[in-house]
Every structure is written in C-alpha cells, then in structure tokens.
C-alpha cells in the first residue's frame, strides 16, 4: 500500500464506523420495540371481532358513505357528523359534552365523554380522533376509520371503570387549512385542558386505521425509515416523538401481548415528515405526551385525501383485529397505577 493512501483509508474507516454507530443508535433508541410483531397467516375472526367488524363498517359507511365530505366549508355535513357521533357516544352511558368554538362563521364542536377513574381520577388518558374530512374527499380512512374505532371502543371501555380517568374525544378541524393553526379542534381542546390544569398522562390519536395492502412495495416511508421497516403495508403503526419513547414502547408491548396482527413502532424526531401529522401534535404544543396510532395514511394509501377514499376501499377484517388490540392497549393504560409504568 502506498503511504499516501493510508490517511484516505483511515478516513473511510472512520466514516464507516460513524455510520454504523449512528445506525445502531437510531435502531436502539428510536426503532427497536418490545416483543415481536406477529407474522404469518391471520387467524379467523373471533365472534367478538366479527361484531367489531360489522360495527366499524356501519360507522364508516354512515360518516363517509352517507354524510360524505364534512368540514367547515360544508357545514351541514359537518354538523350531521357531529350529531351522529354525539348520539353514538351517548350509547356508552355517559353524558356527551360539546366544546363549541367558531371558525369562519361556523360553529364547530369537539365531542367528549368522560369515564371517571376509580383509583387515580386526577390522571387522565385521552383517546381522540378527528371527524372532519379534507375538502374534495369523503374521508373513509382519513378519518371516518379513526372515529369508527372511537365509537366502537366507547361502549366497550365504559363497561369496566378504569383506574385512571378516560376521555374519548372527537375533534373538528384537523384537516387543512386548519391543521397546525389555532382553529384546529384538538389544539382548542388541548389548550383548554392546559388552562384548567388537567393532568393528562397520555393522549392517543386514532388516525387512519382501515387501509392495508400485502403486496411488496405497498408501504413507503420518508428517508431513512425504509431501511428499518417492512415494505408491505399490512401492519398498524405506533408513532411518537423521541421524548415520548417510553409511551410508544409501552403501547406496542401491550398491543403485541394481545393482538395477532403485525405492528411496528417508532419514537422519531418530530420534524420527520408524517411524525406529527395528526391531533397528537396539538397535545405536544402544550406539553402533554401523545402517540399516534395509524395505518400511515399518505405513506400507504393511494386514496389519501382523494375522492376515492371511500368506504369500500377499507379492509374491515383487518381493521377489526386492530381495534380489538387497541381495546386491550387502552384498557391496560387506563388501569396502570402511575405514569412510571409507561417505561415497562
């Protein structure tokens, strides 16, 4: 070897070691999750999952098939969706509270039920989903699916009083042009919680839960996540910022304990595209931990924010398996004694 080539070789070795070290740090701090994602053929639906499937489909068809496009610029449909959600939430046996605010001359409503905690009532777990759609889309996956999960879980979760207080909330105005503005329903809600001094242990955002694809290459990611995650869009994802890594891991662990369905998790930098793209972002703004549960929306579905995001595009069998698993996650988190258990 020529002597002059040795410094260049050392630089190459140093760069290689740095890349390996950074990759290892990225993997162990942000990507690696407890337990193992389910692999293999999906088992037949249980009778309970079959009931979940039928109920989820009913909600999605009502919101995205019958009511359709629903937002401030279509106020009649937005209010029809709010009325439907209020009626369905009331079936859980708890009063529905409307948090009303005006946007561009239209009265908008966040809708909430609360199930008081029996042991730690001052610690609150919020589960939320936005019910508006983007202009030009009926919003079956984004986000009638999240609302359908919220409504379906409400009665199930209300049947057993939790240790922590549990709030289930449907938000208005998540979609543009209100996203990441003061007119976003979840930000209105989160700010009022902070003003009251509410002790929110965790917020879970149910965002686009019903679209799945098993073909190779059906799943996309912002760089460099594709190096670490599967290429098939057949899993449910748990996504949070690095500061909430313990909550992300806790959610994934609980889901994998119960659900025979593929799952992935990531505690990622909030500036990465997609990481903060839902109502959990609003809770971050006021200092609350929050995690998004999602089929990854734009990174998977060809119908994202399109007129073709219709109820017939969703996979209700797989959707039901996911919601069944989420019921276990939420009830376990609500039963946890102390926020410190999040890191277990």
What does this structure look like?
This protein has one domain: Zn peptidases (Aminopeptidase, 3-Layer(aba) Sandwich). It has an eight-stranded mixed β-sheet with strand order 1-2-4-3-5-8-6-7, sandwiched between helices. With 344 residues, the chain is of the alpha/beta class. It is globular and about 75 Å long. It is 39% helix and 18% strand.
What's the arrangement of secondary structure elements?
Blueprint: H1 5-31, H2 47-67, H3 75-89, E1 97-103, E2 106-115, E3 120-130, H4 140-158, E4 164-171, H5 185-196, E5 199-207, E6 236-241, H6 245-258, E7 263-268, H7 280-285, E8 290-294, H8 316-335
Parallel strand pairs: 3-4, 3-5, 5-8, 6-7
Antiparallel strand pairs: 1-2, 2-4, 6-8
Helix pairs in contact: 2-4, 2-8, 4-8, 6-8
Helix content: 25-40%
From the helix content, strand content and strand pairing, which structural class follows? alpha/beta
Report the count of strand segments: 8
- Mass-distribution shape: globular
* Radius of gyration computed on alpha carbons: 21 Å
Elements, N to C (H/E)? HHHEEEHEHEEHEHEH
Q: How are the strands of the biggest sheet laid out side by side?
A: 1-2-4-3-5-8-6-7
Give the terminus-to-terminus CA distance.
Answer: 53 Å
Total count of domains: 1
